[in-house]
Queue: 3 jobs
Job 1
Amino acid sequence: MRKTFGRDEVLSDVHVAADQAQLLVIAGLPSTGKTTLARIICGLDRPDAGRVYIDDQDVTDVKPAARHIGYVPQSFALFPNMSVYKNIAYPLLRAKQKKSDIAAQVRHMAEMLDIDSLLDKRVDQISGGQKQRVAIARGLVKKCALYVLDDPLVGLDFKLREQLALDLCLLQKQIGATFLYLTGDPLEPLMLGDNVAVLADGRIRENVPAVEAYQSPQSAAMARVLGMPRANFIDATVANAGQTVSCKLFDLAVDEPGLLAQAADRVRLLIRPEHIGYENAPEDAVHFPADLRLIEDIGVDSILHLQTDVGKVVASQPSDLVRSRDDLQGAVRMWVRPAMMRAYDPESGQVIDCTFRAGNR
């Protein structure tokens, strides 16, 4: 499908499908069109081209209320002067269900989200995290085959977001419905998704199982979106008919030179922060100098912010190691295993399936 606003093309060629009872996460950086896609699916916006299907039925021209989609928008969109009960019950009241049925469904959903003790309170009397749960309960209370959740946990602190993500995962399994979950968070897709798709440059780049999405991303867009801290990308040049790849930090030999010989004369190397080490380097590692600018202790791991000859590089190290090393400051020598790197075409963003080993530098 395609959607433009004025001269801005937000969605240019989007094709995405979720299997029945699947939790599909669509990940994307800010301003990539996730909310627009959610609104089109729910019927709140109309695509300029393309169709929307639910259970093989074309619903492009069907009004939002008749699509039978549970929708949790990014904003709470709650009624502040109404009770929690009435906010959750609102979709059921509009559907003119029986009061007894409404009461049973509201209480069941409130219990599942641990907000049943708040039903008599007004929304303006509860916390932000509780409001988030109310918004989710309202979106899920009506029995539907499809639920669309547009970044429902945005803005919450990490621990609350982690707990709500777990609750949503359990809810989806209990309900047995299809969840389409859109997020800009780098960790939620890995915590939640059966499958993960990535929305970038107005297109869906991948739609694969969550484990594959992180361990072997076929596009630079997927690698860039997933994981915290974010992945490092280093520009490098290809030489010797695809036999070597070089950057200012190290040289690499290529095991499949034919693949790179057919590609451009440049590649982008993906290096995950957890693959960069400080000591006890394996024999097959390449080393590079860096200036350690900042250490963030986040508990089990510490994030090292490095300045190198190719710019800023981020590494992740066990906090016990970092705390025990007085020499881990200023000028440091880091290492990375070439076999853990992946190469991407800088134009298409697609992976180049070759493996690396240490070069001659």
Job 2
Amino acid sequence: MRLIQITDCHLHAEAWARSRVGYPLRQLRAVIERAGALRPDVVLVSGDVSQDETVASYRLADEAFSSLGCFWSWFPGNHDQPRLMHELHEIDTEVDLGAWRLLILDSRVDGQAYGALGEAQLERLAQCLEEDDRPSLLAMHHPPVSIGSEWMDAIGLMDREAFWDAVTPYPQVRGVLCGHIHQALALRQGEVMVYGCPATTDQFLGGSPAFAVDEASRPGLRVVDMHGQRLSTWIERVEP
């Protein structure tokens, strides 16, 4: 089973719109072309699909992801409008990966850059894990760990300790996929790895105390292969 994560597209209604250092739609299309060549079973889009929160931007995204010809799922980030997304393509909370499963959490907080899961959602997550002991991947937009970047950590997942309290009793949790940080990341929290993914648009400079764009890094995606009880993952980058 091969899952490909794509994240932080930040599309505008205008196909030719420019970001700080590139053209978001052109870069997304380059990433999708590479994703298709890697023959995924599932593509996961982990938030901040839009920059301007317009119907037109989501239509561009829907067209691009649908061109892959495989199952794909998206969920909102702090820049997104979930209602507009859902009208075009369903927002899933769980994806059956055969011997594995993917549980998707909504960390978006209306009107805020930071994220939170909330007590009710964490209770539902624990119940899901209690009912099924298959190896599981969790996904959310905001990282549930400190990434060592002061400005980004201030807008990460605010209830990260409660999240780890909820999942630590369940050894079937094999990894957490997140977006939001616009950079590759692999950090261990206890027995669980947390993986960040390059954006399809601008990359952020890792370890920077203040906001900074990494102009040397390229757009990319994360590949996750699940073999039996084991997981392997790596980053692929493209020329924008």
Job 3
Amino acid sequence: MPYIEFKGKQIELDEDGYIQNLDDWTPELAEYMAQQDGLTLTEQHWEVINFLRDYYQKYQIAPMIKILVKEMAKMFGPDKGNTKYLYGLFPDGPAKQACRYAGLPKPTGCV
């Protein structure tokens, strides 16, 4: 099982790099994972990450991109609820990359 070393602890990951134990997630770990990908998380990134964590807590599933866009548009309006905006923040795929930073499982429908 792959893992990352963070603050003296081994965090188990699945084969796609998603945290195995959701309780291992911290905002600092999200920042670290983003830095490993060459990203610095901004307030806009955190808006999406926190939205995803709330969504997961409510529905027990990580949303695929289509649902993420639709739900973001409902909550934040069309300027933030569109694929262009979300891909600008998470170029490796808004649902996939943002869910990884949010400590959630890989979204359904993502390859």
